[in-house]
Design a protein that fits this description.
The protein is about 45% helix and about 15% strand. The protein has helices spanning about 15-25, 40-45, 60-65, 80-85, 90-110, 145-160, 190-200, 215-230, 250-260, 270-275, 285-295, 300-315; strands at about 5-10, 30-35, 50, 70-75, 115, 120, 165, 170, 175, 200-205, 210-215, 240, 245-250, 265-270. Helix 1 (about 15-25) packs across helix 8 (about 215-230) and helix 5 (about 90-110) packs parallel to helix 6 (about 145-160). The termini are far apart. Bound molecules: nicotinamide-adenine-dinucleotide (NAD).
């Protein structure tokens, strides 16, 4: 009997880089197939299976699943918020077509479990900004948010209509050190750490008082895998779960970095990403995820900042 395998689509991005590593640690290197349209370094390919594959190419994706006895798929390929505003049609095409390729496959193969991430971008200016509830007014005004809201509705529809076991999280902005972020509105909270170590100064593209929900990548990866491993009967929310981590403004993050690098300075030059951020919540209520599958975040601002700075110093070989 062929072993059951896990497939990651869009594996070379910010989340996929960490997710593949953790899935391989859990299931074994050869049992997690990484795929992307971007080729990967030989060192990565030597560690476990990697295939070039476009998520909108149904025939190729379905073939990979069938030939490798894939039973779980993590669909990460998408155009993110800031990029999507500049390429609306391409964003809609990729974000929706990729999802349909997988939903339609799972409709015919109910034993394949699907993970598809949504985002806090589904919320809009009419949503309560603080402690945003799971069920609330959802009127996104960005291309990215519209595609994520549509995706959530389709996931729920395929679950109830066709028995698809699809699970989803509305990720907040994710902070990580392994891969660069892919063009989102919360990227400043990653870039700031690189520049803090390299230049001791940073020019932020959001206003200093812009509070946004964020999460450290180890928490996001743990949430994703815990959600996928939870018994199906516990997963009662089939559009997408709110997930809260840490909520902070650029000014608060700067103060936290200064505790480690007292001379660090930050200037502010808001650009078009400010308009996107202004439509998003400041903090999230994730009590439904806590109640239904036992979610709890671990990393607070201080621990995340300290860990990010340690890894940035390692990356840039800074010894002080
Ligand atoms: N990173 C965040 O802060 C964040 C927050 C909320 C939601 N999300 C969601 O999580 C998912 C992954 O985000 P990420 O930050 O890793 O994105 P990313 O941009 O860093 O990575 C996306 C990957 O998909 C690949 N890709 C693009 N088009 C493809 C195609 N046609 N076929 C196959 N691969 C393709 C890219 O090459 C890239 O490696 C996305 O759905 C995103 O909307 C991310």
């Amino acid at each position: 009997m062929q072993k059951e395998r896990t497939l990651v689509l869009g594996s070379a991005g910010q989340i996929g880089t960490d997710l593949v590593e953790e899935l391989r640690r859990i299931y074994g290197d050869s049992n997690v197939i990484a795929t992307d349209i971007k080729d990967q370094p030989e060192a990565f390919k030597a560690k476990g299976p990697f295939m070039m594959a476009d998520v909108t190419d149904a025939a190729t994706i379905h073939k990979i699943i069938q030939e490798n006895n894939v039973k779980q798929v993590y669909l990460l390929a998408a155009l993110l918020s800031a990029v999507a505003e500049n390429k609306p049609k391409a964003a809609w095409k990729l974000n929706m077509e990729g999802l349909f390729v997988m939903l339609d496959y799972c409709k015919e193969n109910n034993d394949v479990k699907l993970y598809w991430p949504s985002s806090i971008a589904v919320f809009g200016t009419t949503t309560p900004r603080h402690n945003t509830p799971q069920k609330t007014i959802i009127e996104p005004s960005t291309v990215y948010g519209i595609s994520k809201l549509a995706g959530e509705r389709w996931c729920e529809y395929y679950h109830y209509k066709h028995g698809v076991d699809v699970r989803s999280i509305r990720y907040p902005g994710l902070i990580s050190y392994k891969a660069d972020p892919g063009g989102g509105t919360t990227d400043y909270a990653v870039n700031i750490f690189h520049e803090a170590i390299l230049k001791n100064t940073y020019e932020c593209f959001l206003r200093e008082d812009t509070a946004l929900p964020m999460m450290y990548m180890p928490d996001a990866i743990r949430a994703t895998i815990e959600l996928m491993n939870a018994p199906a009967e516990k997963i009662k929310t089939r559009n997408s779960y709110n997930l809260a981590g840490i909520s902070f403004t650029p000014a608060i993050l700067v103060d936290e970095i200064k505790k480690h690098l007292p001379d660090f300075t930050c200037t502010y030059k808001p650009d078009s990403r400010q308009q996107i951020a202004d439509t998003w919540p400041a903090s999230i209520d994730d009590s439904v995820a806590q109640k239904e599958w036992g979610w709890k975040h671990r990393y607070e601002l201080a621990a995340m900042t300290e860990d990010m700075l340690i890894h940035m110093k390692e990356k840039y070989k800074v010894t002080t």
